[in-house]
């Protein structure tokens, strides 16, 4: 599987007084079967970037390649339906898109749009709901009766029911309480590791990036600042300074200990691991 951006530019409202260039000369290849964070300040182009992956936005320069699909500036793209079957995009506050009278109807709506029978669509919906932790007691309930976190799960199930190879999530934990946010991120990690779905997460939460993601893509004012693995990113203070990122608490604590002369290994990325390491040192 290939996911590539080649010299991609994107401009909102071109040839108008409101023209705004949101992406500039993006060269990027995303790894298969990884969970990758897309980070950067507000307005850096994160949402604009990922909306190119299922042709919701079309590049005004360069091209985007997703497997056999090539979306090229100035050329009509006609395989939108096929591409959106491959790439599932979950918007921020995606629960606002729920519209059917029952949950099972809402989740089966997408698969039916791809031409399968209603019975098969419902089976796919049931499997997707089970994946996100909602059992048969939810099938006939109205989406409007659910909590915010449950609505988010239903919206994600609606995407999973279509069987995407790539799952793109735009601030999936926004508006959720800490427990709900952790449950969501754990679910996405499980989908990545157990089902082999490539997961791309747009997020501002560096604790989530550290705990759940394999790689990090950083955007700054519409340009690609860096693409690296998670450990390298958080071990390099210069990277975080360039990205204007406030490091997670464990990274700040490790930096403080190193300033005091302690040699802390780079692969220690949790408070629990750090406590065990310091306990072993003390025992020597």
Short description:
By secondary structure, the protein is α/β, with parallel strands linked by helices.
Task: Give an account of the 3D structure.
This protein is of the alpha/beta class. It has two domains: 3-247, P-loop containing nucleotide triphosphate hydrolases (Rossmann fold, 3-Layer(aba) Sandwich); 248-284, no CATH class. The chain has eleven helices and ten strands. The protein has helices spanning 46-50, 80-86, 103-113, 118-131, 148-160, 178-195, 206-212, 230-235, 237-242, 249-259, 271-283; strands at residues 3-12, 20-30, 35-39, 61-66, 69-72, 87-90, 166-170, 198-202, 215-220, 223-229. The strands form two sheets. A six-stranded mixed sheet has the order 6-7-8-3-9-10. Strand 9 (215-220) and strand 10 form a beta hairpin. The termini are far apart. The relative contact order is 0.14. The mean pLDDT is 91.
Please tag this protein with its features.
Rossmann fold; globular; 39% helix; 284 residues; four-stranded antiparallel beta sheet; 11 helices; 2 domains; alpha/beta
CATH superfamily of the largest domain: P-loop containing nucleotide triphosphate hydrolases
Q: Helical element count?
A: 11
Largest sheet: 6 strands, mixed
**Rg on CA atoms, Å:** 21 Å
Strand/helix succession: EEEHEEHEHHHEHEHEEHHHH
List the helices and strands and how they pair.
Layout: E1 3-12, E2 20-30, E3 35-39, H1 46-50, E4 61-66, E5 69-72, H2 80-86, E6 87-90, H3 103-113, H4 118-131, H5 148-160, E7 166-170, H6 178-195, E8 198-202, H7 206-212, E9 215-220, E10 223-229, H8 230-235, H9 237-242, H10 249-259, H11 271-283
Parallel strand pairs: 3-8, 3-9, 6-7, 7-8
Antiparallel strand pairs: 1-2, 1-4, 4-5, 9-10
Helix pairs in contact: 3-4, 3-5, 4-5
